[in-house]
Design a protein that fits this description.
Blueprint: E1 6-11, H1 13-16, H2 28-41, E2 45-48, H3 60-76, E3 85-90, H4 102-109, E4 115-120, H5 123-130, H6 134-149, E5 155-160, H7 162-168, H8 170-182, E6 187-192, H9 199-209, E7 217-222, H10 229-238, E8 243-246, H11 260-270, E9 274-275, H12 284-294, H13 316-324, H14 351-360, H15 370-388, H16 397-407, E10 416-428, E11 435-446, E12 454-461, H17 464-477, E13 487-495, E14 508-516, E15 519-527, H18 530-549
Parallel strand pairs: 1-2, 1-8, 1-9, 2-3, 3-4, 4-5, 5-6, 6-7, 7-8
Antiparallel strand pairs: 10-11, 11-12, 13-14, 14-15
Helix pairs in contact: 2-3, 2-12, 6-8, 7-8, 9-10, 14-15, 16-18, 17-18
């Protein structure tokens, strides 16, 4: 490690994440919530969205986005962590004075004092995109930095397309860095905006540019188009980068940028590098799940460190090694980042594997009891039959838990769904492009405390699956209020070929991920009827949450 002792994490989730193609658009309230979480986690620098000047807004969609951004700035000014927030934007326009620049005025109008502005480092971008001279571009950078520094806060200069620009004309790229530094920038951020640089290129170019970076803090903003952003960032830190730009789950333009969830544990746990302001990362998985949920997305199971599969051991030799000593198969202990070790249930698992899986999913069992051993064998047979029909229970641990739980002799059901009558009406308008729809559902639910079944009708839902949920959930929540705290975060359908039919007649597997007070829960339903498969997965989710809340499952 040749860089500084302390690294500053600069999180771009609020801006880059809002440009991502994978998640839902964040509201102003969502941004405040995420920023609050990042502050509590200890992240020292938080980048906020670009407040474009009103005169540049043409489309209605742009105006709505601008209103959202300005509402965020109005709210964030009142927060104790406001000094951590950087207003993102660009250098001033060409051929104007800094004091007259609409773009700089818009940045200052936010009322915050810290700014991160990008400027062109590539000759091609100056000439072909800005359509101005190389000299004018340098003036724009210099005057923009000086003007914003008068606000009394920090100004970071993002050298956009730096690495491409250096390869095109290193002398001009060097002039850009020196111009920003001499104008008073507090840090210079070297950007691989295209995200295609190889690690050896990043290393060579940074070493060549180090003389221009003398006496100023510098960092990197590296996109992941070549799938090397994390490695490139680590190399940059080894060469002296003080600022590392990330997004919590890597959500960003195109294919993303380095994940906070990967860089932090790599630096702190593997390299022993201090990350200023961040002392504990046990809440890393919870932070990742929270941000994914805010994006109306789900945390990919294969996401390193925090995904559901990160510490999952399935294959025989891998599993055996992890059971003997987890350090034989794991690069870090999962609890250091708030994750859990898992041994999934699969067709290759024997009774012992099933027993471990049952205990892992919260069933209270005595492994030495002969009756329990017989029970585990019985569960194993059912699991194999279910998997033969496409349930794939190892990817739906909450459904696996409910399957075994319901097989116990002393099981008492909290509710039974006995009747579902969904209905959807779809009406096409005259032009044939716009459809109107309405969905409703009648359900019948048995509850032990009620003498007769409860029939519930729901109308006005967004589709038949939503109608089923809206008919069942509010009814059960009157008795089990914990269900009000469940939120569906992912719904997936896959065609199976287990019934010998193809296309729309195929059997389908519906997988559901729910956010609950006890963490995320994955459930599954399988049937030729997609609505019944959906209802199965929903019922497993509801009952799993209920059983956890009353202590039946740990």
């Amino acid at each position: 490690m040749t860089g500084q002792e302390g690294i500053f994490i600069y999180d771009t989730t609020l801006r880059e994440g809002d440009q991502s193609m994978t998640g839902g658009v964040l509201t102003a309230a969502d941004m405040i919530d995420i920023a609050t979480k990042l502050d509590k986690f200890g992240v020292p620098f938080i980048e906020a969205p670009w407040p474009l000047p009103e005169e540049e807004l043409e489309e209605e969609e742009e105006k709505l986005a601008w209103e959202k951004v300005m509402l965020f700035y109005q709210k964030v000014k009142e927060k104790e962590f406001a000094d951590k927030v950087f207003v993102f934007g660009s250098t001033m326009e060409k051929d104007v004075e800094a004091k007259d620049s609409p773009r700089l005025k818009a940045l200052i109008k936010t009322g915050l004092k810290n700014f991160a502005i990008f400027g062109k480092t590539s000759k091609r971008h100056v000439q072909e995109v800005l359509k101005t001279t190389l000299k004018e571009n340098l003036r724009m950078i210099e005057e923009s930095v000086k003007h914003l520094k008068r606000r009394g806060g920090l100004v970071f200069f993002d050298a956009e397309h730096f690495f491409d620009g250096w390869l095109e004309d290193r002398d001009y790229a060097a002039k850009v860095l020196l111009t920003a530094k001499n104008a008073g920038a507090d840090a210079i951020i070297l950007c691989d905006t295209n995200g295609g640089m190889l690690t050896w290129q990043i290393s060579e170019i940074i070493q060549e540019a180090l003389p221009e970076l003398k006496d100023i803090g510098w960092g990197v903003h590296l996109h992941n188009d070549g799938d090397l952003a994390l490695a490139n960032t680590i190399f940059a830190i080894n060469l002296g980068a003080k600022y590392a730009q990330v997004a919590v789950n890597g959500d960003s333009e195109r294919v993303g940028m380095p994940k906070l969830t990967s860089l932090l544990p790599t630096l702190m746990l593997k390299m022993g590098i201090k990350c200023e302001g961040i002392t504990k990362i046990k809440g890393l998985k919870a932070l990742a799940e929270y941000v994914a949920e805010k994006h109306n997305d789900w945390l990919p199971p294969n996401q390193p460190f925090v995904g559901a599969n990160a510490f999952t051991h399935k294959a025989g030799t891998h599993r055996a090694g992890a059971e003997i000593d987890p350090t034989l198969q794991e690069h870090i202990p999962p609890d250091l980042v708030g994750a859990k070790r898992r041994f999934p249930i699969s067709g290759i698992a024997g009774p012992n594997g099933i027993m471990k899986g049952l205990k892992e999913e919260g069933l209270k069992l005595n492994e030495e009891d002969e009756a329990v051993k017989k029970f585990a064998k019985k569960v194993l047979q059912i699991v194999k039959k279910k998997d033969e029909h496409g349930y794939h229970l190892e990817s739906a641990p909450a459904s696996f838990a409910m399957l075994a739980f319901r097989m116990q002799d002393d099981y008492q059901w909290p509710f039974k769904l006995t009747y579902i009558e969904p209905k959807s009406i779809l009406t096409c308008t005259i032009d044939g492009w716009i459809w109107e729809h309405s969905s409703s559902c009648l359900v019948e639910v048995n509850i032990p405390s009620e003498q007769k079944p409860i029939r519930v009708w729901n109308d006005g839902s967004d589709g038949p699956v939503h109608a089923i949920e809206n008919a069942i959930k509010p009814t059960l929540a009157k008795i089990f209020p914990i269900l009000n705290e469940i939120e569906l975060v992912n719904y997936r359908v896959r065609i199976l070929k287990y019934n010998g039919k193809k296309g729309t007649a195929s059997k389908v597997r519906v997988s559901i991920t729910g956010a609950t007070p006890f963490g995320t829960a994955d459930t599954v339903g399988v049937h030729e009827n997609i609505l019944l498969a959906s209802a199965q997965a929903l019922m497993d989710l509801f009952e799993w949450t209920i059983q956890r809340s009353v202590g039946k499952l740990r």
